[in-house]
Amino acid sequence: MREELFKIKEASLNNIKDAIDLKTIEEIKIKYLGKKGALTGLLKEMGKLSKEERPKMGALANEIRENIENSLKEKENIIKNALLEEKLKAERIDVTLETDNLILGHYHPLKRTIEDLEDLFIKMGFLVYDGPEIETVENNFDLLNTPANHPSRDMTDTFYFDDKKLLRTQTSPCQIRAMKEIGAPLRMICTGRVFRNDEVDATHSPMFHQMEGLVIDKNVTIANLMHSLDYFVKAFFGKDMKTRYRPHYFPFTEPSLEVDTTCPNCKGKGCPSCNHTGWSMELLGCGMVHPNVLRNCGIDPEIYSGFAFGMGIDRIAMVRYGIKDIRMMFENNTKFLEQF
Ligand code: DAH
């Protein structure tokens, strides 16, 4: 019996060693340990043994059964791991594969308008300057010659952090930064976000966009201002567009003007959207830079003069693309944005 047990052990362990797939492992299990298996068959013969022999053979048979079971388990794990490894290799995903369901983004109508404005002014010899959205009260108001009691400084209009810092209410502080950094002569524009404590409606948003322009040189006059702005309006909106200048007040320019253009809707004939005047109101504010502002930035107003202008970009984009409500520009509704 002992000999036969060892034979079974040796034969089964050899079989396990040679096994290369799970099916063979299962077959070996059945062949030796199954109900009709070799080991089970041998155990059935135990009754024939003497009383002394029986427990010894029983213990040996159990030991051998455990031995075979452990070897089977071990080999099974090795085969499973190898299979997994093979599967992982075969299933490696090729991320370079082409697919046609990529959604590509594109320009926002505001960004397109800003870049077109910048391109035009770059051609006119202006540099594109950039300034921060968090500004000092000094740059946003004081150095721009804004009197202490000017209504735009009011808490109800302006987002203050404290008595020195605010969210800029206009791009005009970029004038101050450019004059201090670059000095005269200077020809610059600056675009960006500005912030005012306005109620949201179809034409107002607490965050909107402006473009600022500034020219400083010797002998700059209001004729240069009018020529440059006329040129801009014709180049940007169309050759048949006209400009109209109305006197106005801004703290940082003297004299100050507001500019209207031919109504883009009726081309000057008169329609409900221009109140039948043929003119579209307030494209921009402008004027000759106030001598105090030049002095505040270290430029001698006896030697240099200049003009400045500022306009709302959101309105320009709205007119250009026929957008009726400013809120649509900031809602990020892709159905809306896809149209541009
Ligand atoms: N900063 C003015 C505003 O927000 C716009 C403006 C008017 C800018 C006249 C200028 C200017 O540079 O000369 O209403």
UniProtKB/TrEMBL annotation:
- Give me any GO biological process, just one: phenylalanyl-tRNA aminoacylation
Q: What is its EC number?
A: 6.1.1.20
Question: Which InterPro entries does the protein's record reference?
Answer: aa-tRNA-synth_II, aa-tRNA-synth_II/BPL/LPL, Phe-tRNA-synth_IIc_asu, Phe-tRNA_ligase_II_N, Phe_tRNA_ligase_alpha1_bac, Phenylalanyl-tRNA_Synthase, tRNA-bd_arm
Pfam families in the record, alphabetically?
Phe_tRNA-synt_N (PF02912), tRNA-synt_2d (PF01409)
Asked whether the keyword Signal is assigned, the reply is no
List the catalytic activities from the record. tRNA(Phe) + L-phenylalanine + ATP = L-phenylalanyl-tRNA(Phe) + AMP + diphosphate + H(+)
> How is the cofactor bound here?
Binds 2 magnesium ions per tetramer.
User: What does the record give under GO molecular function?
Assistant: ATP binding; catalytic activity, acting on a protein; magnesium ion binding; phenylalanine-tRNA ligase activity; transferase activity; tRNA binding
Compartment annotation: Cytoplasm
Residues noted as binding Mg(2+) in the record, renumbered to the chain:
E254
Q: Which UniProt keywords apply?
A: Aminoacyl-tRNA synthetase, ATP-binding, Cytoplasm, Ligase, Magnesium, Metal-binding, Nucleotide-binding, Protein biosynthesis
What does this protein need as cofactor? Mg(2+)
**Record's GO cellular component terms:** cytoplasm
| Aminoacyl-transfer RNA synthetases class-II family profile domain ranges (all copies) | 117-331
Decide whether keyword Aminoacyl-tRNA synthetase is in the record. yes
Say which enzyme class the record assigns. Answer: ligase
Q: How does it assemble?
A: Tetramer of two alpha and two beta subunits.
The protein's matches in HAMAP family, at most eight in alphabetical order, are given as: Phe_tRNA_synth_alpha1
Recorded family membership: Belongs to the class-II aminoacyl-tRNA synthetase family. Phe-tRNA synthetase alpha subunit type 1 subfamily.
Q: What NCBIfam families does the annotation carry?
A: pheS (TIGR00468)
Name of the protein in its database record: Phenylalanine--tRNA ligase alpha subunit
Which source organism? Peptoniphilus lacrimalis 315-B
Q: Which lineage? A: Bacteria, Bacillati, Bacillota, Tissierellia, Tissierellales
Q: What is the name of the gene encoding this protein?
A: pheS
